[in-house]
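Customer escalation, tier 2.

The customer says the design service returned an amino acid string that "doesn't look like it belongs to this structure." They asked us to rerun it and document both sides in this ticket. The original structure tokens are below, unchanged.
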């Protein structure tokens, strides 16, 4: 079971992802996003530690984006590595979930 590290400050929740975001952690990931949205509808997902993401992980991100937007906020991703960026490009999700270079960049200009 993955422990989701979440930090909320200035009305923005930051969720730090594990090394692998796959089917095994997709449901707890969705739950972590929902819990973060309950504290702050603006969510940044820090993908810095993540070396691998699969379709279940992408589904959790899209589900999280919907949850954030329904709460009047948004979801942004930050610090994605090359594998994650490649998967986002191949699925065209980089058009919806635009990667930011750093968490600080993602937190700016809500």
């Amino acid at each position: 079971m993955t422990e989701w590290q979440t930090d909320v400050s200035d009305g923005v929740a930051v969720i730090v992802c594990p090394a692998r975001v796959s089917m095994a952690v997709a449901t707890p990931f969705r739950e972590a996003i929902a819990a973060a949205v309950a504290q702050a509808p603006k969510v940044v997902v820090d993908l810095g530690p993540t070396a691998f993401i699969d379709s279940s992980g992408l589904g959790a991100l899209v589900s999280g984006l919907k949850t954030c937007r329904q709460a009047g906020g948004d979801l942004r991703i930050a610090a994605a590595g090359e594998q994650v960026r490649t998967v986002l490009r191949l699925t065209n999700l980089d058009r919806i979930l635009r990667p930011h270079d750093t968490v600080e960049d993602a937190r700016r200009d809500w």
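Tier 2 assessment: The sequence is consistent with the input. The radius of gyration is 12 Å. The beta strands are 5-9, 12-16, 20-21, 42-46, 52-53, 74-78, 99-100. Sent an explanation to the customer and offered a walkthrough call.
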